[in-house]
Write a structure and sequence with these properties.
Chain A: One of its GO terms (molecular function) is metal ion binding. Chain A: Its main location: mitochondrion. Chain A: It is a single-pass membrane protein. The structure holds two protein chains of two kinds. Chain A has helices at about 1-25, 60-85, 110-115, 130-140, 180-195; strands spanning about 30-35, 40, 50-55, 95-100, 125, 145, 155-160, 160-165, 170-175. Chain A is of the alpha+beta class. The longest helix of chain A is centred in the middle third of the chain and has 23 residues, at about 60-85. Chain A is globular, with a radius of gyration of 17 Å. Chain A starts with a helix and ends in a 6-residue tail after the last helix. Chain B has one domain (about 10-70). By secondary structure, chain B is mainly α. Chain B is about 65% helix and about 0% strand. The chains are: A alpha+beta, B mainly alpha. The interface of A and B includes residues 146, 149 and 152 of A.
């Protein structure tokens, strides 16, 4: 029964992989600015595994929780890497990325203040409203700013997803709120172990 | 007017703490807000206004969800059923 269960899960994963490949999300080359003010294109991250989250700094609870989870996933993967040892062909550390859905308020400085509370390698990205919107569109991110109140404050309703990008920059998997850091790390590790670059 | 910067981690945790204390009070007093006025004011002072509104809605949603889980869903038409 255990074999059947594993076989079923393997087939489900394969089906999901094919669906994601067919969608080919994450095409195009975003042109953003990181929280140190340095220009960053998506192509800068080719050759790296990336875990990407879209959110905003004025987020009441979800974004801090998801970014802490993201940080713990990265730590779990880093621990596994150091356990494997140099002779085992260790992959470059996975890059955590945070892209804002609120470019109006999330300036470079605002991002810098925000990301320092999370994983030390978390890179925050912002840019012009148009560039940020384009980046979100490439991943079919849902983001909708709510009506501002009397003091001009507002929240941005947005999809809550962690995106796994492979070294060729395409979307390999995605994880919702209900996935734990252990589940995500296990899935990422599985992708890393079975990754096959697309034919050129 | 300059936009307010986002709350820091310390400010977020202070807000969440005040929210939790307020909600615990509501739990103890069957959601009678009048019994928890001091904690309500503390919650409102420690959280941005938009977050207060968001958490108020969240509590309503969580209560509704709990109600569905414990009582099941009763469509309005079923009001007259035995």
């Amino acid at each position: 029964w255990l074999y059947l269960k594993e076989e079923k899960e393997r087939r489900q994963r394969a089906r999901r992989q094919e669906e994601l490949r067919a969608l080919a999300l994450g095409q195009g080359d975003f042109q953003l600015v990181d929280h140190t003010g340095r220009a960053r294109r998506k192509s800068d991250f080719l050759g790296h595994w990336v875990l990407l989250y879209f959110g905003f700094t004025h987020c009441p609870d979800v974004c801090p929780e998801e970014l802490e989870k993201l940080g713990r996933v990265v730590e779990l993967l880093e621990q596994e890497n150091s356990q494997k040892g140099a002779h085992k062909g260790v992959l470059p550390p996975i890059q955590p990325l945070f892209i804002t859905v609120d470019p109006e308020r999330d300036s470079v400085d605002a991002l810098a203040r925000y990301v320092r509370d999370f994983h030390p390698r978390l890179l925050g990205l912002t840019g012009s409203a148009e560039a940020v919107r384009a980046a979100g569109r490439a991943y079919r991110v849902y983001a909708q700013a709510g009506p501002p109140d009397a003091s001009g404050e507002y929240l941005v309703d947005h999809s809550i997803i962690l995106y796994l990008l492979g070294p060729d920059g395409l979307l390999l998997d995605y994880y919702g709120r209900s996935k734990s850091e252990e589940q995500i790390a296990r899935s990422v590790r599985r992708h890393m172990d079975t990754y096959q670059p697309l034919p050129m | 007017a300059a936009k307010m910067s986002a709350p820091t981690m310390e400010e977020r945790k202070a807000c969440w703490g005040a929210r939790d204390e307020f909600w615990q009070c509501l739990d103890r007093h069957a959601d009678d807000v009048s019994k928890c006025e001091k904690l309500r004011l503390s919650f409102e002072s420690r959280c941005p206004q938009q977050w207060v509104k968001y958490f108020d809605k969240r509590r309503d949603f969580l209560k509704y969800k709990k109600k569905l889980e414990t009582e099941g869903y009763h469509p309005p038409e079923a009001a007259g059923k035995s």
